[in-house]
Specification:
With about 525 residues, the protein is of the alpha/beta class. It has 2 domains: about 240 residues, Nitrilase/N-carbamoyl-D-aminoacid amidohydrolase (4-Layer Sandwich); about 280 residues, HUPs (Rossmann fold, 3-Layer(aba) Sandwich). Helix content is about 40%, strand content about 15%. It contains 16 helices and 18 strands. The strands form 5 sheets. It has a 6-stranded mixed β-sheet with strand order 5-6-7-8-11-12, with helices on one face. Helix 1 packs parallel to helix 2 and helix 8 crosses helix 9.
């Protein structure tokens, strides 16, 4: 994001590869490839637009003998557009301005761009090619307008971020446009991690029959060559792509890629993770090793008086299985000194979650000290279920630079751990099988404070991701008091989520840009109406 010169260097390299290595007639890049997506308020900086102009000049010089389709911001007549430029022989031949500007979930395009209202069809050798951009393909009108203007092939350039099941939705939408317009479609999608968002690639091509003939893999940057049969007016190819990969494999790939991108692009030398002996930290450590390599991962176990021998043994086994640097730092002496310092002030109070949170915050301080000393990013281990109901300690286990499980419900955490163990068992089975516990008090279990996770996750999916009202959730068979308590916890803990690190989006409604609620709110006064 914002590495305009670096992005355009890659564009120029691919143009020359397309010309000289592949002999292509046309090379297609993604939506806002020049800036990255979403550029957000960078677009308000006047020097950014000047840098874009300079970079475009360098690209245009490389277009002798080849057509280039390139996504970029474009200023015209005082308006800024999300544009696709059609460039050939060192000049801009045509421009298309995105017509359907999404303004929901993580999208905020109406804040920055004006909408176009004209189709764009250009000649490429002996065919007429129409252009649309991302959200345009999800609506009837832009593709239809391109067809009416003579398009025999539609190319749709995208910056479409991932969530589970998104690829099938993309292909379903493209198939609808093909059925309506009787032309093949090439769908070119961006690749890369940008804060919470992962652009998974998965570019694909469908013929006039609505059959997916080509599909790029997830999370792999590469040049893909397609041929168009002028006589058949269709994309060439006999090999039909299989359906999308297993959902847990897909999510695991995305979490790994998103973590790799975030740590790398923010120039950390490595990472540090606090192990607990539980499943969340075990999965995060495994993801980190798969993303960064074991040499860039440091695991730290910080036991207290409440840490079980089982947790110590399982954490050690996990670290050994993954071949990571592993340290054990007891917090008992530090914890005792904290209690002693607070003894007089707390003299007339009984022990409660305050003492539990002190342990978590001591661990957070230790992890941040390691981060500062070695330029390691602290990878936090909380999952979506915990973030939803506030079952996490602010400035404690929530401390960190990135939270890969932030949008992963607890039951999905179990599924991902089992998936990762299929090829090689690295997470000890006992970690997967044992009841979840924060181990901040004697014999503590998560279900002492929360509904069973299989119930909690279902309620959260309905309330958070689908915006289903309380009474409708109860009508689906859930206990009314349980539903009310979960909703209360969700609203009361907005302040925690606002201070949480970013994490990979894998669902349709992630905490963060997708879901925007006030911290200070009287909505709980009207619980029956939520």
């Amino acid at each position: 994001m914002g590495d305009i010169e670096g992005n355009c260097k890659k564009v120029r390299q691919s143009i020359n590869s397309a010309k000289h290595r592949h002999g292509a007639h046309c090379v297609v890049f993604t939506e806002l490839a020049v800036t990255g997506y979403p550029p957000e308020d960078l677009l308000f900086r006047s020097k950014i637009l000047a840098r874009i102009d300079s970079a475009l000049t360098s690209i245009i010089e490389e277009t002798e003998g080849i057509t280039v389709i390139l996504g970029t911001p474009w200023e015209q007549n005082g308006n800024l557009y999300n544009a696709a430029l059609i460039i050939r022989d060192k000049s801009i031949q045509a421009k298309y301005f995105k017509q359907v500007l999404p303004n929901f979930d993580e999208f905020d395009e109406k804040r920055y761009f004006s909408a176009g209202d004209q189709s764009c069809v250009f000649r490429l050798k002996d065919i007429s090619v129409g252009i649309t951009i991302c959200e345009d393909i999800w609506q009837f009108e832009p593709a239809s307008a391109a067809r009416q203007s003579g398009a025999e092939l539609l190319i749709n350039i995208n910056a479409s971020p991932y969530y589970a099941g998104k690829q099938q939705e993309r292909e379903n939408q493209v198939k609808k446009r093909i059925e309506e317009n009787d032309f093949p479609v090439i769908y070119v999608n961006q690749l890369g991690g940008q804060d919470e968002l992962v652009f998974d690639g998965c570019s694909f091509a469908m013929n006039r029959e609505g059959v997916t003939l080509y599909r790029a893999p997830e999370c792999r940057e590469q040049e893909y060559i397609l041929e168009y049969d002028v006589d058949a007016r269709d994309i060439c190819g006999d090999e039909v792509m299989p359906s999308c990969v297993d959902i847990n494999e897909s999510i695991y790939n995305i979490l790994t890629f998103g973590l790799q991108e975030y740590v790398g692009k923010n120039k950390f030398d490595g990472s540090v993770i606090g192990l607990s002996g539980g499943i969340d930290s075990a999965l995060v450590l495994t993801l980190a090793v798969d993303a960064l390599g074991p040499e860039k991962v440091h695991a730290v176990m910080m036991p207290s008086r409440y840490t079980s021998q089982m947790s110590l043994e399982d954490a050690q086994t996990l670290a050994n299985n993954l071949n990571v640097e592993y340290s054990v730092i007891s917090i008992e002496e530090i914890y005792t000194s904290f209690l002693r310092a607070l003894q007089e002030l707390f003299a007339n109070s009984s022990a409660d979650t305050t003492e539990e949170n002190i342990q978590a915050r001591i661990r957070g301080v230790l992890l941040m000290a390691i981060s500062n000393k070695f330029n390691y990013m602290v990878i936090s281990t909380g999952n979506k279920s915990e973030m939803a109901v506030g079952y996490a300690t602010l400035y404690g286990d929530m401390a960190g630079g990135f939270a890969p499980l932030k949008d992963v419900p607890k039951m999905r955490v179990f599924e991902l751990a089992k998936f990762r163990n299929k090829n090689k068992r690295v997470i000890p089975q006992r970690i997967i099988d044992r009841p979840p516990s924060a181990e901040l008090a004697p014999d503590q279990k998560d279900e002492d404070s929360l509904p069973p996770y299989e119930i909690l996750d279902e309620i959260l999916e309905l309330f958070v991701e689908q915006d289903i009202a309380r009474e409708q959730i109860i009508e689906r068979g859930f206990d009314s008091d349980t539903v009310a308590n979960v909703i209360r916890m969700v609203f009361r803990n907005e302040y925690k989520r606002r201070q949480a690190p970013p994490g990979v989006k894998i669902t349709k409604r992630a905490f963060g840009k997708d879901r925007r609620y006030p911290i200070t709110s009287g909505v709980l006064n009207y619980l029956n109406d939520t």
